[in-house]
User: What shape does this take?
Amino acid sequence: MPRYRFAAFVVSPAHRVVRRDGEDVRLIPRYFDLLVLLLSHRHRAVTRQEIFDRVWSDVVVSDGALSQAIRTIRRSLGDDPREPRFVRTVARHGYQFVCAEVIEEPDEGPLAARPAADPPPGVPDPSGDRFTPLVERLLRYPPHDAATDEERHEAAEQLHVLGTAEALKRVDQLPGHPEARAFLRDARWDVPGSGAVALLGSPRPWASIAQVIRLRLRRAARQTSNRWATAAGAGGAAGLFAGIIGGVALWLVPASGAASDVIVALALVGGIAGAIGAAGIGAGLATAEALARSGRALALTVCGAAGGALAGGVAHILTRAVLAGMFGRDVTSIGGAVEGLVLGAAAGLAYGLSTAPLPGGGLAGPRGGARARTALITGAACAAAGMLLTVADGHLVGSSLDAMAAAFDGSDVGLAPLARLLGEQELRPVTRALIGAFEGLLFGAALAFGLTHRPRP
Assistant: This one.
């Protein structure tokens, strides 16, 4: 790939650096990749879809992330979106690098000039106080009381460039500082070299933490809702498939008196159970990905466990209420919060460890073999959790159905005929463990596959 020169800038893909008059222009890696992509295809407009596929190939981000990247590149180049010299917006299509005087040369050897040293922190800006107008925009002080979240995020980025410590010192003295600190915390990932923005050490730590959660959830609301829906759908499909397999096995086993309609019954139960479980755990995992930019695996484990416990607890209460209200039977040996918590924790931990950390934000979006690997690892973790649960007398869908069948004379959904194939007269540890592992494998793999679905922008 060649080195590019235009105006006062040099862009070197080999050195991964942008320089203006010999001084480094700081860009985070993805923004640098985007600039190089636009330069290398400057003869045409690059579509938004192509940008997402090339620059964010391993992560799912919102359209706002691309808009933020373009704003940062323009600011770094000193470009004006109203009269662009470098990057033009092509409405409903994408972006194009429009500077005509771009020189390509071999990207070999060292760059001649050294980057300028950063100014010492705390040194006044000779051109005047540049902090105050940015702080006012960040805090929505007049005349910036109508500033959008994107404008406030940009103000936070510029404050990081000027000096994170000084920006925090000024912000913390003013009303509304918890929300301003949340913007500064969120923007630090987009500015190389920015300082730390502590939350627990702030004047009002819990208010700042609440503002960070609100900001990130609001920004990722559409992504997390899509993530939740695809996870629930995939879990329902896995439960449907498992029910069909179980129904066909019961129908074909000679010792079973089940008719062919048992296939429909088990498929329906499996689909509903899978969808409910995946909806709870998927919601927890999607929320954790939206919120956590550090400690991601821990956040996924905790939120997955919480979502699974909630879904399992609700399903347990509703199932017992339906059976008691309609049939006068109180069946207690059915899955609940504990089973959901263990499965959710296993899925969250495996999913977090099998997908790359995303400090810049966004949701994991592996493709091809990487996506299959994530699904298999998550499925294997859930299979192990399913085996442990059933051996410890826990109840997943299969053993719950068997317990319900035992409460109703003449029921054909009992799993004892399958146990006899394995040398057990009824559901004992071996059969329970195998069925639990099968259920966990299908559920975990489908959950991860649904979570990593990449919607079109």
About this structure: Residues 114-126 have pLDDT under 50 and may be disordered. The chain is about 60% helix and 5% strand. The radius of gyration is 28 Å. The chain has three domains: 3-105, 131-218, 220-451.
